């Protein structure tokens, strides 16, 4: 429906949208119309704005412009939600002749870059701003935009126009499914998305990687990146554990997560000191503080715990990194969950670990949930919340009834894991052996429901972890020379 209040500019429309109480139903949202300048003919056209929500994904603002004088039309998708903590890089492997993959829905934010490595082709963020389309639609839009100026190019630079004609033939063949290619969608804001029709199961053709934004990416997203300053050690402060007191230390670590997080860590050992150093908030870009300490977990290894909090936007996060050298082997942890007591087992999941529940045919690749300190119950709960956010097209208007029933059935079965009506298995596979599940017995060897397996990493795993490219020969030569002199 249309708005009853007149909207005269974009600012008024934004205020009206922000004042909306319910964003869960697009039918409850007014359609705002504003008069805006047409960049083609210079006359005034009409821009329509609608705040809506992609189910289980994000709130978005749909904008459509139309000029009645020159018939210019365009549309954009702007995200009304928050900036995601990490950037995301999607890689979709499209097989030749597979038209279904080309029909995958794609949400491209105005900060995302699309790449086709096989053609050395890149669609920069400003080329297709805020797009809700399909793989085929994005490629065909690129073809149309490149073809639109071909007549002028043939007059000015015939050689370049001829080369571009040959390139367009290849690009069209990709859009028609005649050739296989890789479709890479890289978004520092984390607000882009590629549909997974197999959700919640893994998609063999789609991989997702999460990464920390660089200061340059943070600045490009419109957030101020302040230069860090401090003492000779970069502003790091070493706070002796005894001087802050146990209660103060517990509060400082709890800044990054719930009180259960701090309590679970205190069950193992207390650190000697807490280090505080300046950092930048990953959400709003304002300067904040990160607290860090090193501790030893029995039956496991030395770990580094980091907790960050931002007073400006309230964002909080916590990470746990394995200390020491890179292990020679990976580790697979298998837990048989038989009762609710097993749900209280402490879990340390590194950002390299994958999670599998065979009874549900559920497998989450490394990086999906990031690193966390939680319990088995907390891990399953987080998986459910994460699937709701990531797999955003499972209840769309175009989804058939079979897929809707399938998704609801999976959500029901996932929640039943927490009731432990039947025994089920949790598997953590960590190529860097940086994950851990606590035993429920005093001696870990007496816990027959918990199994640890060491294994040799494959070449592909080492390549993904970046271990194949590590060259320490120069450091070894220097170390040998200093030890012999």
From TrEMBL:
Compartment(s): Nucleus
Q: Where does the record place the Zinc finger ZPR1-type domain?
A: 36-196, 279-439
Q: Which GO terms fall under molecular function for this chain's record?
A: zinc ion binding
Q: Does the keyword Zinc-finger apply?
A: yes
A GO cellular component entry from the record: nucleus
Q: Cross-referenced Pfam families, in alphabetical order? A: jr-ZPR1 (PF22794), Zn_ribbon_ZPR1 (PF03367)
Keyword entries, A-Z: Metal-binding, Nucleus, Repeat, Zinc, Zinc-finger
PANTHER family, A to Z? ZINC FINGER PROTEIN ZPR1 (PTHR10876:SF0)
Q: Which NCBIfam families match?
A: ZPR1_znf
Give the similarity note: Belongs to the ZPR1 family.
The protein's name is Zinc finger ZPR1-type domain-containing protein
């Amino acid at each position: 429906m249309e708005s009853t209040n007149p909207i005269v500019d974009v600012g008024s429309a934004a205020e009206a949208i922000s004042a909306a109480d319910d964003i869960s139903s697009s039918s409850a949202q007014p359609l705002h119309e504003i008069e805006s300048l047409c960049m083609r003919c210079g006359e005034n056209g009409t821009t329509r704005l609608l705040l809506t929500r992609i189910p289980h994904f994000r709130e978005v603002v749909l904008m459509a412009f139309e000029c009645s004088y020159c018939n210019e039309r365009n549309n954009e998708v702007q995200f009304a939600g928050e900036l995601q903590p990490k950037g995301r890089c999607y890689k979709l492997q499209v097989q030749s002749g597979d038209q279904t993959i080309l029909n995958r829905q794609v949400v491209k934010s105005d900060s995302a870059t699309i790449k086709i490595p096989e053609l050395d082709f890149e669609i920069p963020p400003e080329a297709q701003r805020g797009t809700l389309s399909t793989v085929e639609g994005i490629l065909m839009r690129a073809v149309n935009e490149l073809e639109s100026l071909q007549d002028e190019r043939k007059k000015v630079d015939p050689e370049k126009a001829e080369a571009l004609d040959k390139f367009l033939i290849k690009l069209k063949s990709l859009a028609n499914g005649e050739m296989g290619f890789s479709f890479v969608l890289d978004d520092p804001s984390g607000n882009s998305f590629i549909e997974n029709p197999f959700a919640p199961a893994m998609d063999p053709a789609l991989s997702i990687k999460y990464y920390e934004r660089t200061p340059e990416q943070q600045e490009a997203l419109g957030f101020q990146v302040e230069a860090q300053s401090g003492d000779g050690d970069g502003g790091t402060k070493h706070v002796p554990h005894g001087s802050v007191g146990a209660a103060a230390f517990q509060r400082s670590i709890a800044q990054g997560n719930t009180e259960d997080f701090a309590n679970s860590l205190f069950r193992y050992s207390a650190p000697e000191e807490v280090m505080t150093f300046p950092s930048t908030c990953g959400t709003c870009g304002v300067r904040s503080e990160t607290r860090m300490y090193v501790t030893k977990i029995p039956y496991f290894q030395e770990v580094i715990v980091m907790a960050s909090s931002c007073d400006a936007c309230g964002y909080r996060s916590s990470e746990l990194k394995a200390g020491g050298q890179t292990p020679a082997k990976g580790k697979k942890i298998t837990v048989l969950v038989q009762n609710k007591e097993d749900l209280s087992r402490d879990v340390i999941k590194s950002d390299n670990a994958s999670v599998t529940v065979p009874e549900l045919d559920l497998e989450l690749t490394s990086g999906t949930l990031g690193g966390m300190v939680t319990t088995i119950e907390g891990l399953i709960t987080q998986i459910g919340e994460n699937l709701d956010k990531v797999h955003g097209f499972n209840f769309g208007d175009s989804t058939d009834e079979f897929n809707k029933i399938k998704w609801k059935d999976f959500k029901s079965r996932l929640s039943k894991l927490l009731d432990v009506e039947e025994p089920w298995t949790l598997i953590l596979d960590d190529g860097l052996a940086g994950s851990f599940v606590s035993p429920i017995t005093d001696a870990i060897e007496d816990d027959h429901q918990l199994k640890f397996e060491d294994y040799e990493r494959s070449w592909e795993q080492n390549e993904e972890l970046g271990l194949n490219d590590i060259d320490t020969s120069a450091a070894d030569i220097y170390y040998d020379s200093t030890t012999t002199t």
